[in-house]
Amino acid sequence: MLETLRRIVGEVGRARDLTMALEAIVRGVREALDVAVCSVYLVPRAKVGDPDAPLMLMATEGLSRKAVGRVSLSPDEGLVGLVAQRAESINLDNAPQHPRYKHIANIGEEPYHAFLGAPILLRGEVLGVLVVQDRESRRFSDDQESFLVTLAAQLASSIVQAELSEAVAHPPSSRKKVVGEAIRGVPGAAGVASGIAVVVYPQADLEAVPDRRCDDPEAELARLKAAREAVRAELAALRQGMAQRLPEEECVLFDAFTMMLGSESLFAGMERRIRAGLWAPAALRDTIREHAAVFEGMDDDYLRQRAEDVRDVGARLLEQLQEVENGVRDYPERTILVGREITVTHLAALPEGRLAGIVSARGSSSSHVALLARALGVPAVMGASELPVERLDRREMVIDGYRGVVHVEPRGTLREELERLVREEAQLSAELATLRDAPAITPDGTRVHLYVNVGLLADMAPANNVGAEGIGLYRTEIPFQVRDNFPGEEEQTRIYREALAAYAPRPAVLRTLDVGGDKPLGYFPINEDNPFLGWRGVRLTLDHPEIFLTQVRAMLRANKGLGNLRILLPMISGVGELEQALELIDQAHVELREDGLNGEAVQVGVMVEVPSAVYQIDALARRVDFLSVGTNDLTQYLLAVDRNNARVAPLYDSLHPAVLRAIHDIVTGGRRAGRPVSVCGELAGDPLGALILLGFGIDSLSMSAGSLPRIKRVIRSVPLKHARLLAWEALACERGDEVRAMLRAALRDYGLGGLIRGDE
Ligand code: PEP
Ligand code: MG
Known about the structure:
The protein is an alpha/beta fold. It contains 26 helices and 22 strands. The chain is globular and about 85 Å long. Mean pLDDT is 88; it is low at 173-179. Magnesium ion binds at residues 570, 609, 630, 632-633.
């Protein structure tokens, strides 16, 4: 059953439009459960979430096909409506006897008695109902019921994706009031921008290849032909190499691959698609899918496995096609990078000044790409999991990073509205730029120091342009991530010196390596079931003192003659770890002095981002010079919500009263010990968060360069006296939503509504 389930889900996931997806479902389920009828009813997309939304019959095997798209039931009608209302499955041996049974004329369900319906739910909302029916009066078995329920649960996301894919492929041509698809994700970086999508995808991943038009089919065919010859030569070489090591019968595998390459039907399929206007990689993708599906549908186990071989040949061809493609990308003036997962390398490939925005199907507002987007000052939408990525290349889009929404080719009044937002956004940026040299002082005279978070050399320049008072967090793992081995002491010294020199004499806080969790090092793989609770941050570097000592020595050497270095320790969970790290820092000093190099004392601080540190704040504060609150991890660990998981993103709330209480306790703990407290997590760059932190009496805030001007504006507008009252009121709230509503209202009263547009 599990295999069948996977097959159906896979087929639905690959469908190019909703009709194909739904047909694959009803066909697959009817066959798998050996029943007479399988049907899918869906709620119109615009009405999902509305308890009165109707359910329309969208596909069926077994009932009258003429009824598809015609029969619609309200939720208080029939058993289908009851499944939707209850949002749970209903299994009946004799449906017509049930009080909620409703006879529908001309649908052809008279002969059927057994009824099993399962809701199709996405994030708690009913998208539709999946129904199977059979003639005789009998209850469906527990196994059948659990199959249908499991399948329905897994289908929701694919259905939405197929729906969106169809909608963006065939945008309505009429100039009706509001058209243009809105695709929901979560806010990644504030701002609204319009531009042209450029889809980026992992190399050699056939499934990730986007659609793209080709203007010159002959050239595409020639490209394909060259790729085919190259793969043929590659396979011949492989076979020859293997012949010495493997018995002949194992080597025939290569012959099978070569035969596949010679298959005329495979290449005829690609040619047809290319002549219809598709570029070679997408023609390859679709043809391979089609051929693999034929093998997958076979009963014979051996033949079914051959689907993998077809995909293998497809991947090899793709790799060859990409050899030619590499380096010849042209990026439009206003590029919006779109992908399932966007990496630092994708960003680096873009010529300067072309990036207008980022849309990623995975990740959330605290993923590193979102942090980078904020550093670069471009809007980003994250976790748009239903994004039909492969359909979006070169499409015009407007992204709203405040709300986390993407509009593909918006028209009519929606377009006008979005254009207005883009204009207002530009105006806001221009206004904020005038504050560059103004200090962050509240109207009643309290100064809050504003620093920037950096990591890439690329964000050093924008950071220096926004009038920051120094670096509040330099994430040293980023230069480690973009290399292919550990940088040595000399190289690290050079990297850190550049950062320190760019800001001297203003302070620069360099954090020791915080790899692990969501920050992997390709050359130092860590495979763990629970990486966020595993070997990350200081835990790893204390187990590898040689890495820690090299890094600290490099930092101290880089500080020579500058004197603005401060060292920050990530992921401290107790006094023992802190003492060990401090001893190693002392050791690095001693070693450098012995070597006649710089060993000048520097300030050391701890990140407070693990809940245990909140409860030991006095003991920790006593041992260091300053505290820096990492609200990204603190929120994740306090609320037990993965900061990168879009599925639980609505639960990830740094304004949750429990998180605010913890921050308040850290600030008061720091004050008791006479140590300054800063916040360097994303909450510091959120206008609502900054308001609360100001009220708690925070000494400094460190954030992405893109956020700094907004936060300065907030601080210069709201008197400390009022911020304190708001902070107390927030601590008395029981839910994050209440805190948010109250702070929103306050910012609006100060005329700062434009800074929090998405929260309206
Ligand atoms: C944090 O956890 O809040 C933080 C600033 O560190 P990072 O996002 O790098 O984990
Ligand atoms: Mg952290």
